[in-house]
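ENTRY TYPE: paired fold submission
RECORD: A
CONTENT: sequence, then structure tokens
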Amino acid sequence: MKYRKKPVIINTEQWMKHGDNDNVSKYCDTILYVEHDLCPVCKKELFEHGLVETLEGYHRVCPGDWIITGVQGERYPCKNDIFLKTYDEV
């Protein structure tokens, strides 16, 4: 069988830097301090990153990721390229 995802309107905001979203904490606050370590995904320094609490635990947020609030109030990050392919502005 095949299924199509139901259209659902979500709330979201793009996270660029610390202070953009109260739901994103500083990455360095929750682990050992990282100064010059690079993110394996975006190659930017880890101190520029954040963490968002999801249903599965905390997930790293790279600058430019979107923070999506789901239909039950849950939050999760989404990479910009995937977000732009998946969602249209309403």
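RECORD: B
CONTENT: sequence, then structure tokens
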Amino acid sequence: MRFAVQPRDVPPLTAARRLGVDLKEFNQILPNLLARGFPEADPDTGNFDLDAIDAWRRARHPHLFLTEAPHARDARFVVSARLGRMKVG
């Protein structure tokens, strides 16, 4: 049997692609990224953790990511709020 393996620790080229830049630009901006909390490469392999990169991105722009499970609103509050906006003075 074969199992598909999706590595989470990736070389700098793949980390760069995750950010939408080429390797040369990634290496240039990496010091600034690290200063802003970007996850460091593994000291032994030099690879970056994609999960950590994604978490860093979500923390920077939480409004772009679904960070909690959606839930239904209580219809009583929704209806009363809408009726309240419909009332004309």
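NOTES ON RECORD B: The longest strand covers residues 9-10. DSSP finds four helices and two strands in the chain.
STATUS: closed
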